[in-house]
Structures are given as structure tokens and as C-alpha cells.
Amino acid sequence: MGRRALCSAWVYEGVADRRGTPIMWGALGEREDTWLDTTFPVYSPMTLMDGRYAIRDGDFQDGVTYYTHVAYADDAAGSGFATARSGSLYIGVYVDALKASSAKASDYRWSHLKGVDSSDGEPNGTDSSGHQLYLHRAWADSADGKTNFSTTVSAGKKYVGSYTDATLADSSSASKYGWAAWSDGNAADGYPSKTKLNGQQPYLHTAYADSVTGAQGFSTIVSKGKAYYGTYTDYTQANSDSYKSYQWFKSEASAGLSGANGGPGPVGANTNSRSALTFSNLSQRGLASALVNVAVNMKNGGTLPFDLPYLGESGHSSGSYPAWNVQNLNVKTLLTDLANADGGPDITFRPYWSDDRHVRVNLLAGSDADIYLDMDHAPVVLNCFRGGGTLEDLTVDYKTPVQRIFATGAGTDASVVTAIAEDLSQLTGSMDPPMLQESVYSNSDTLTVSLLKQQAQAYLKANRLPLMQLTGSIDVDDTDSNGTLLHPLGSFWPGETFILNVTGFPTLPDGQYRTRLMGMSGDHSSKIKLQFDVMDALF
Predict the structure, then answer these.
(1) Which residues of 123-160 are buried (b: 16+ CB within 10 A; e: fewer)?
(2) Among 246, 258, 207, CA closest to 91
(3) Rounded to the nearest 10 degrees, how much is the dihedral formed by the CA atoms of 417, 420, 421, 426?
(4) 328: which strand partners?
(5) Cβ-based neighbour number of residue 478 at 10 Å
(6) Contact yes or no for 426/401 (Cβ under 8 A)
(7) Which residues, 6 or more positions from 505, have their beta carbon under 8 angstroms from its beta carbon?
(8) pLDDT, average across residues 29-53
(9) Three-class SS of residue 333?
(10) Which residues contact 35 (CB under 8 A, 6 or more apart)?
């Protein structure tokens, strides 16, 4: 297992190559041994691609944990530098990959501190007699402090006033304060870091609350009397007004707001795996070949006997696959998404004899001009009538229409991208309407509402009418009057066109149904079940 592959070939009287026609190729999977036998699955090429990712060797690396460092000071130059807040009016922030915080004021970017509003002064040393002194602050919209004076609201104010005395309570007289410009008192914004990461500006966001979850007494500007501290760091300037955005801590030190060590760093910024595979100006099957080439030929020990005849074929398709997005880089998924997209090509892997002893697998796909697989023969014609015909056991399955699609894209929880597509004309424009049917569509790679809307509308378009699907079976040992096999395995493949001549079926009008083979399956007998493409229902 994991070393060899098997190929099933169909041998019949009159076959040109006595080894037969290669039909199914697969790698030996995990086996199970008993006293009597050994069993194991055989993994198809697409199943093997399920275990490969569109990442070049070396592009995915161990990440880096970033830390947000905080300090406090008396002014924008970092005077009175301290690692704990005590009467400080400025906060300094920087982000790096070291847990220990710097003691150099110049390493921090300094901003006016929010969340210092209070009706009382803050302890600020003692006088010559040993009496406790208190620093008092107030805010206003004029240089004399008389316009919109407040000792508890700093957000949006233009001036800050301060004085020190031995009385705990703040004075309500503006004339007692010394006033200075207050240019950074916007409590709706986070604190910018002096350092940037990967060209982006990190911001530290802080909040305060009365409960460990942040749900009770949540505030981004009032810290007085609050028991819990909430923080997060990201690349958005504005604070979140949702307590769920913050990580909550019991102490300032554990939150990284004081002490010798930094706190939690930016979410999503702790990876070195930023290299990306980028392809442009390729046909769709050229892009498919490029992805398989990465999975097979650009990995140490990854070689498989796959041929890629469309590698480098020019066209108008492109793709960028950053290594950090590994959860969405499964090659089987990428190929499936490519084939399932509007106008996407049929894609298949087909085995063939490469020499006297070996089998290789060829990647075949439709072109940009014709998305269907090439056929080297005329459409296969099957006849079906009651009690006979080359197509037996005919079954018709139906699917009711869908009128509304709820679509979700990238993101989590309340931040997920959403879109809706609906067509209620069948319900409102008919005297005998069908029942409302709703469905969901999800694509975690879709980042914008406009693209998600297009995908939802395409999904609705494909399902807005009643659909039907024909299945049946054939006997590959059937012969004509001369004893020649009519439809031996290897003479037709999924994706190829079939013409079904149906007569006398109870719910299908007599006629010719042109369709394509979607799938085929069988057992040890010569009976093969055929499943044909979905088509509009005839009612």
C-alpha cells in the first residue's frame, strides 16, 4: 500500500491489444488482513489529489508569534516612562516577535490615553509633609476650559486640563485647571503601533467591563471601577463596539496592558507562509494542469505517472494561491471548483498503456471554446422500449425547483459574507403555484458580496426549474447479429454524448434524448449502470 498502483483492463474477443483496454487506475490504499484474505481500496487520481495541496515545498513554514507591547508616559516624547499606568496621560504601543517588552521610550508610538475619565483624581506622589497628592483632569472644547467642560468625558474634546492637590475629588471649576490642546481623544479608534507588520499598521484596541465575558458594563472609554480588561490587536483603526471582539482578562498584566511582557499580537499575522503560487494567462485546462503539476512534480517524493498535455496552454484564466490559505488549497477541491464553475471544463484522468509493461494516466479536459471532452467517435446510440432494448432498467428521477438561495462566503459568525438570490415568479404568477423551496449555498473562498451574489444567482438558475435525470443499465457483452460486441468497455467514457431512443415509457414522451454520460458503475458481472446528465423535466 502507498507504493504500487493497479490498473483494471477490459479484455474481450477481438480487442486490438491482448492486454485489454485500461479502464480504471488507482493506487493501493490502506489494507486489512484476516486469516483468509486481504482487502484494500484503490485510490483514483482525484482521490490522490485529495491528499495533495497547491503549495510548493518550502513555501509553508513555521509561523511567528507576535506580541503587542504597551507602556505609559507623561507626554508624547515618552517622558516619565512606565510599564504600568499611574497618572499617565499617554500610552505607547509597538508590536514585534519578542515576548519581553522594551524599556526604551523611543521604541513605542505614543498616543493620548483613552479610558481615563473619572470624577476623582489619581494618586500622584506626596508633598513635603507626606500628604497624598492627586492628579485631576478635565476636558473641554475651548482653550479656557469653559465650553463643554467635563471631568468624565474625554472622547472628542479639543482640550485637556490638569492640576494637582491633596483633595481626592475633581474640581468642577474650569479656571482651576491648566489647559492644553487635546488632539487624540477619539475613543472610537485603537492605538497605533510604531512598528508595522508585513506593510500593515497594527492597532491595539482596549475595553473594560464588569464581567469575565465582557457582556456586563462594557465600555471602550470608561475604565473607572471596571474589574475586567479586554484587548485585541488587528489592522483596523476603529474599535469594535462588540464585547465579543475582545479577549477578556482579570488583570492589566494578564491583558498585556502592564508588566514586562507583551500581550496577544495581531490575529492572523503570525505566519511566515506568505509565498503564493500565481498563474496568469492560462486556459482553464492549462490552470488545472498547473495545479496538478505542483501537486505531482514540484514536491519532493511527489512524482506520479500523470501526463499533463495542456501545461502552459494560454488563455484568460488566472489564480493566486497563498500558502497560508492551506485549508482551501486541496488540489481535488480546486479542480472540482474549476470544473463546477460557470463555463468550467469537464476534467478526467484516463489510463493508457505507456509501454509493454506500464500504465500512465492522462489528464484530459475540455477547452475554453468547448468545455466538453473530445470524442473520437460518433455519439453512442441506445434504444429503450418495454421488455427490451440496449438500455435496460430505465429510471427517471425528478427534483423539485428551488426559488430562494441563502448564500454564505468568507468570514465567521456575524462577520460572514452573505447574499440572497430568489425568483418567486413561479409562486406569484401562477394560479396553481408550487410549494416554496429554499436552499443554501456556501463558498468560504468568496470574499465579496458581488461575487457571492453571482454564484448564488448561478446556483438558482441551475435549480429554478424542475429537473430530471435518467439512469439505466447496459450489458457490455451484448453483440450484434455478427457476434461483434456493441458497447465494450473502453469504447465510451463519462463525459461523452449519448443518444437515447425511448419508446413506450409511461411518463416520458416517445423520442430521442441527447445527453451526456455522467457516471458509470458496476460489479463483477457484465451489467454496467449508466447515469446521465441532469436535464429540464418535461412537465
Answers:
(1) eeeeeeeeeebbbbbbbbeeeebeeebebebbbebbbb
(2) 258
(3) 160
(4) none
(5) 13
(6) yes
(7) 384, 386, 394, 396
(8) 96
(9) helix
(10) none
Q: Give the pairing type, strands 306-307 and 359-365.
A: parallel
Measured from the Cβ of residue 533, the count of other Cβ atoms closer than 10 Å reads: 16
Question: What pLDDT is stored for residue 116 in this prediction?
Answer: 61
Cα–Cα dist 533/346, whole Å: 12
Q: What DSSP element (H or E) covers 38?
A: strand 38-39
Overall size of the chain counted in residues: 539
Answer whether 289's CB lies under 8 Å from 311's CB.
Answer: yes
Pair type for strands 380-385 and 247-249: unpaired
Question: What pLDDT does residue 359 have?
Answer: 95
Burial of 186 (0-12, 13-18, 19+ CB in 10 A): middle
**Ramachandran angles phi, psi of 339, nearest 5°:** -70, -35
Query: Are 397 and 468 a contacting pair, CB within 8 Å?
Result: yes
What's the one-letter identity of residue 503?
T
First CA to last CA distance, the chain: 51
Question: Which cell numbers in the block locate residue 93?
Answer: 504601543
User: Position 104: which residue type?
Assistant: K
Q: Which long-range contacts (CB under 8 A, 24 or more apart) does 383-389 make?
A: 383/501, 383/503, 384/472, 384/500, 384/501, 384/502, 384/503, 384/505, 385/502, 385/503, 385/504, 386/503, 386/504, 386/505
DSSP 367-426: -SS--SPP-SSPPEEEEEETTEESSEEEEEEEE----EEEEE-SS-GGG--EEEEE--HH
Distance CA 456, CA 404 (A): 9
Long-range CB contacts for residues 314-317, cutoff 8 Å, separation at least 24: 314/281, 314/282, 314/283, 314/286, 315/281, 315/282, 315/283, 315/284, 315/286, 315/287, 315/368, 316/281, 316/283, 316/368, 317/279, 317/281, 317/282, 317/283, 317/284, 317/286, 317/287, 317/368
**Burial code of 319-357, b = ≥16 C-beta within 10 A, e = fewer?**
bebbbbebebbbbbbbbbebbeeeebbbbbbbbebeeee
Q: Is the pTM here over 0.85, yes or no?
A: no
pLDDT (tens digit per residue) in 148-185: 998 877 767 888 888 999 998 889 999 999 998 876 45
Cα 426 to Cα 428: distance, rounded to the nearest angstrom: 6
Grid look-up 468497455 returns: 489
**Contact in structure between 246 and 277 (CB atoms under 8 Å):** no
Segment 507-533, tens digit of pLDDT? 999 999 999 999 999 988 899 999 999
Instruction: Give dist(CA 56, CA 61) in Å, integer.
Output: 11
Determine the pLDDT at residue 117.
Answer: 58
